[in-house]
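Run: sequence + PBG -> complex structure.
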Amino acid sequence: MILPLGSFPTTRMRRNRRDAWTRALVAENALTVSDLIWPVFLCDGRGQRMPVESMPGVVRVSVDLIAEHVAEAAALGIPAVALFPYTPKEQRDAEGSRALDPDNLVCRAARALKAAHPGVGVIGDVALDTYTDHGHDGVLRDGYVDNEETIAVLCRMAVLMAEAGVDIVAPSDMMDGRIGAIRRALDERGLIHTRIMSYAAKYASGFYSPFREAVGSLSALVGDKKTYQMDPANSDEALREVALDIAEGADMVMVKPGLPYLDIVHRVRTAFGVPTFAYQVSGEYAMIMAAVERGWLDKDRAMMEALICFKRAGCQGVLTYFALDAARRLKAG
Ligand code: PBG
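>> structure
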């Protein structure tokens, strides 16, 4: 691009901003409902809608309510939901065994959703932290998350989810080599259409705490995740992570968290041109909602501005707890 193309007063940048219609005409990016992925939390029981304290407006729903819970999102055209299970302490163990139960919350919800809303994509999170009593994403050996042992479990978990109806498996564990191993495991079972959305550049972030409350991991987590999730100081390293995941068979890649990491999104999209997503994580949602509750921010404006920024940075879509609200807002015009 050659700049500048003109100079004042011949050129007045404010001309195109003068009226709503010109602003719409020259807009470089747009947010549509098909950009939104809605993360949904699941819990045991029947008829349950348990609020998540640190995420105002977000609930965990029991599986009998999941079809109804997603109905409006489906009607509005939200393309996909991402499922996360709340697992209380007494159901957790060191190996995260529940992850391999074909009747766990995620598998049951996937079956219910595919029956009720076959046109809505179902995304399943592949990692053990929502099932382990130590809160780590894999299997601990001498205090270290063992890479290969974890991958072996993740492969079985991904196959189980896919067989239950999950359309996109989303490994969020950050083990090395897991995308290739999961792709092979799926293909061996003939699950060649199951897509992989890799949490390719996932950072060891302080912005995940409300999520950890929502899934019951907050009190469980021993230590931190810095031996597998990325250092927030790094950017070139994200490109290597993404390159490896693409080579191993990822269909889509994700950067996480979202807003503080839009430079990474932009580099990834520019360097690779693959479908690129970002996760506007729980802490980002909590920050906005906390300010909204105090009357310090206007919810709709903050939400819609944050979401268009993801598009401007180069995202094809965003995982956001605002998905339903934003879809309603887009429909209202
Ligand atoms: C599980 C997982 C996490 C999130 C998504 N998948 C938590 C973590 O890695 O500790 C965070 C999402 C959010 O904060 O909204 N591996």
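>> summary
The chain is about 40% helix and 15% strand. The chain has a mean pLDDT of 97.
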